Amino acid sequence: MCYQNRNICRLQCHLSAGEYQQDLLSSIPAVYISPNSQPPCDKLSEVVQLCGGKVCKAMRQAKICIGELTGKRATDVQNVSEKWLLDSISHHRLYPLENYLLNE
After folding, report:
1. What per-residue confidence (pLDDT) applies to 52?
2. For residues 94 and 26, is the Cβ–Cβ distance under 8 A?
3. Is the separation of the CB atoms in 102 and 70 below 8 Å?
4. BRCT domain spans which residues (predicted)?
5. What's the rounded mean pLDDT across residues 5-30?
6. In angstroms, rounded to a whole number, what is the distance separating the alpha carbons of residues 65 and 72?
7. Domains and CATH numbers, the chain
């Protein structure tokens, strides 16, 4: 098992306990996670939801896209690397999206 997956599993266990439920991502707009993301999309989606965030199935509904995209995206969607999510959660603070932008 890779190092990142172990960290995500540990984070999931920690966050799933009722009194420790996190709301770190509750204040950000809905996110779309690229199917090509690493760690995998389903794992990142679960982590976002465990931290109080909302995940969209369609990119047109999101304001933030996590992971590498192929094709066009709306100009008002910020495309950031997975590292933004992992860093923000690891340090329990939202880092500026501008520091993690992709496709600029």
Report:
1. 94
2. no
3. no
4. 20-102
5. 69
6. 12
7. 3-16+23-100 (3.40.50.10190)
Q: Are 46 and 12 in contact (CB under 8 A)?
A: yes
Closest by Cα among 39, 31, 36 to 10 = 39
Residue 86 structure tokens: 């992992």
The encoded tokens of residue 52 equal 């109080």
Q: Is the pTM of this model over 0.85?
A: no
- Residue 13, pLDDT score: 58
Q: Structure tokens of 91? A: 């340090």
* CA-to-CA separations, 72 to 50, 56, 80, 87, in angstroms, rounded: 29, 17, 15, 26
Q: Count the alpha carbons within 13 Å of 48 in the hemisphere toward its beta carbon.
A: 25
Contact between residue 25 and residue 46 where contact means Cβ atoms under 8 Å apart: no
- How far apart CA 97 and CA 103 sit, in angstroms, is 13
Do the Cβ atoms of 53 and 62 come closer than 8 Å?
no
Q: Tell which wins on pLDDT, 34 or 4.
A: 34
DSSP at 67? S
